[in-house]
Amino acid sequence: MSDPPGGRTLTGRVAVVTGAERPLAAGLAHALRSAGASVAEVPSSELHSRTSAATAFTTAAATLGGPVDIVVHGAVPEIAFEAIDFDQVDDARWDAVWEATMGAAIHALQLGFEQMRGRGGRFVFVTPTVSMSGAARLVPYTTAVEGIRLLAKSAARQWGPDGITVNCLAPAPEHFPIGVASIDVSLAPPALGGPGDAVTDLGPIAVFLAGDASHALTGATLCADGGVWMAP
Amino acid sequence: MSSERPPTTGTLDGRTAVVTGAGQGVGEGIARALAAGGANVVVAARRAETGEPVAAAIRARGERAVCIVTDVTSRESMAACVDQTVEQFGALEIMVHNAFRGGTPHRLEELSPELWEQNSRTAVWGSYYSAVLAFPHLRAAGARGRLILITSPSGVEGSVNIPIYSPVKAAQRAMAKSLSREWGEHGITVNCVAPVAETPALVSAFERNPVLKERIEARTSLGRIGDPEHDIGAVTRFLASDDAGYVTGQTIVCDGGSFMGL
């Protein structure tokens, strides 16, 4: 992977990147590392239970030499990405997508907060733009992602006084194996030509949200999809 | 532009609606408004003690309503509600999911599994069951098919006092958007209403926190808190009618002009 532009603004910071088995989150982890952070990459599967998630967070702090300052949450259960007609969605799938996706996000929030309490910190939730545009045959997934986006806003409101910011980074759907392109849910082509590269295009935005420069920004969703979805 | 079609009238005559959580508050207001618009209304309530009087009050006005005791968190109970509705009225064109439990103030770091489950099961699983179980009937209704999910301005703004309420209400909005794209080919519309209304839940919140009422009224353009039937129910009735046949995937924030971020 090539390095992203920018300096080493995260030197000395400890970061956990969840969902790092997928290329986008792995790219963001690479970008944080290039900016000087010590990064633990945690696969989505470890966020499923509170116990394994807690182990991942304490292990990260122990091995990286300090409490966690930054959580970039990209964890999503693999089944969430499967496109399926809504009338074929059964309770088991609804549980495996909605409950598991939200559960992982709540675990990441609560465990990150434990380590940031009294010190401040940064949460960055990866929320692809399809949660705002909607997408046919992806009802469980889009429902869960929008849940995460508002979980972030509520956390931002509660934890602002603790010096903790909580923001969302909304990439183009092309970064996920969901068979949806931005152009499917928008008439406009990407102003910047495409969905961008995880490390060199989205990486610097994640580094910004993870660093001191974004201290006055919270509860926001940065649509980093190459200029398709221009909400709000 | 000329049209061969007759003008729309906004009437719901002959259509059948299910309203969950209709034993009180916003759900009751919506049930009354849909009945006033001519619909056969199923007051789906968790308890007969609340649902039956609402249905009886509607019938006393000369309109049509029955109460079906329904637990929106149970697939079996929701399926039975839909089946009984179709058995009794012959069709189901309008599904309104409003039921919710779990508005207890809390800190996110102390969120209990029980409170999460109340929020998730009533708002999100309830929406899922409403949608998936009503779907065969909504598809049969074609351009008269309506799924309406009652969400909240908090589902867009986030909430400092009841933080977990926001994600479950936001989830409903995303569900409506995705379903509107998926079901558009059948003519079914899927929308949300995000109300602020004088409900028993809000009144008890005011009792606990008198400043809240002043704050809400002060930031509301119209300076008053909505009426469940005349303000919220009427907007829901519009979405249920042919007049709103070209509106889908949307949220109408019905809060007297407070949140304007959409």
For the biggest sheet of chain B, the summary is: 7 strands, parallel
Q: Assign an overall shape of chain B.
A: globular
**Helix proportion of chain B:** 40-55%
Strand order of the largest sheet of chain B: 3-2-1-4-5-6-7
Largest sheet of chain A, in brief, is:
6 strands, parallel
The CATH topology assignment of chain B is: Rossmann fold
Identify the most extensive interface between protein chains.
A-B, 45 and 44 residues
Q: Any idea of the CATH class of chain A?
A: Alpha Beta
The N- and C-terminal alpha carbons of chain A lie at a distance of 32 Å
| CATH architecture grouping of chain A | 3-Layer(aba) Sandwich
Number of domains as seen in the coordinates of chain B: 1
Unreliable segments of chain A (pLDDT under 50, ≥5 consecutive)?
Answer: none
Describe it.
The complex is a heterodimer of chains A (232) and B (262). Chain A is α/β, with parallel strands linked by helices and 232 residues long. Chain A has helices spanning 23-34, 50-64, 91-116, 130-133, 139-159, 198-210, and strands at 14-18, 38-42, 70-73, 121-126, 164-171, 221-224. Chain A has one domain (14-224): Rossmann fold, CATH 3.40.50. Helices cover 39% and strands 14% of the residues of chain A. The radius of gyration of chain A is 17 Å and the shape is globular. Chain B has one domain: Rossmann fold. Chain B has a 7-stranded parallel beta sheet with strand order 3-2-1-4-5-6-7, with helices on both faces. With 262 residues, chain B is α/β, with parallel strands linked by helices. The model of chain B has no long low-confidence stretch (mean pLDDT 96). The two termini of chain B are 30 Å apart. The longest helix of chain B is centred in the middle third of the chain and has 29 residues, at 113-141. The A-B interface holds A 85-87, 89, 91, 94, 98-99, 102, 106, 109-110, 113-114, 117, 131-139, 142-159, 185, 219, 232 and B 75, 107-109, 111, 116, 120, 124-125, 128, 131-132, 135-136, 155-160, 163-183, 249, 261-262.
